[in-house]
Design brief:
58% helix; alpha+beta; three-stranded antiparallel sheet; 112 residues
């Protein structure tokens, strides 16, 4: 896998980040609105958003005094194309895929 694809899958490996992406499917959101449903600090949410932005899955822009997040769905195309190569199998459950990776790559899971 190429480095950009690795970065996308690493970003998708976390359930909080997947939930954030689901929220952004609806519309652009201010960072404070993204953080609202989570039981974690704004700094922790900002870290998750930074990982998503580094993977190209979201973009962020300043609007007035607020930072807004926007889903960048094109960033998922390479991951989708790669996963379609396994189309003869059942649809991929990302939570199961995350557990599989944690078992297969325990040293990477410890780094998180």
């Amino acid at each position: 896998m190429s480095a950009p694809l690795d970065t996308v899958f690493a970003a998708l490996a976390d359930s909080t980040r997947r939930r954030i992406l689901s929220m952004l499917l609806e519309d652009d959101m201010a960072v404070t609105d993204v953080a609202e449903p989570f039981d974690m600090s704004l700094a922790a949410i900002s870290k998750h958003l930074g990982i998503l932005a580094a993977a190209g899955l979201i973009s962020q822009e300043k609007r007035g005094r607020l930072k807004w997040c926007k889903l960048e769905p094109d960033a998922l195309k390479s991951a989708s194309v790669w996963m379609q190569g396994f189309g003869q199998f059942e649809p991929v459950n990302l939570d199961d895929f995350e557990r599989f990776l944690a078992q297969e790559l325990p040293e990477r899971a410890e780094d998180r």
